[in-house]
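Sequence only, no structure available. Ideas?
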Amino acid sequence: MTDPVKSDKRENLRKGVYLLPNLITAGSMFAGFYVIIASTDGNFVRAAWFILLSAILDGLDGKVARMTGTTSKFGVELDSLADVIAFGVAPGVLMYTWALKPFGKLGWLAAFLYVVCGALRLARFNVQVSTVESRRFIGLPIPAAACIVATCVLLFFELGGTGTIKMFSVVLLVFLLAFLMVSNIKYFSLKDPDLFKRQPFMLLVFAIMTLIVIVARPEIMLFVIGMVYMASGPLGYMFNRRRKQAAEGAAKVDTKP
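Reply:
I predicted one. Tokens follow.
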């Protein structure tokens, strides 16, 4: 006897899939795969830019699906698989070929740790997506971690660097990104519904000025923005913990006779 739920799912898939959002997802996957090709060829700058392109496409597919009413379980699963390639394996290969290879076993283990923590981050997100608030991510999002990797490479070459490097600070950065992805530290989400509501006029002016600065020196500013976002999680965690401890201390004082 067949399961009616599974039968319905198979039947829905036979009816077809939505082309537009899934094509965008495939584009993100293609960009991620090209990162691997470019990295192995030594084209590190091009690989870094393609990670950023993949991140843009990854942000578009879900929004296009919601705007056109073409969301589907198939699209969600394909998006997760694309993210593993574009933001897990691809940045791992880029970092290994650019900066981690000279460290031998430690280097490729650091790259693998980044990849597996990214996969764990995605798996946890898929499980918790219906139970956590949309305005906060739990753990550093894997696209943000990949963009930090990309902007780190772009900054190196913008400042006059050439070829590969051997810096232990890069190993530490990879370990830090891996830890933050699987941590319970909360990060601000661009999916926050309040972002699409009316905002103060000066916020628009600030956003335009920020955009101008980014366009003027994208390699430097994108790296700065990435590092600020990465640091915002731990700083917010420490601030909230201190505020909670202060509130608990005040409550204990109030309850004393």
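The radius of gyration is 21 Å.
Hope that gets you unstuck.
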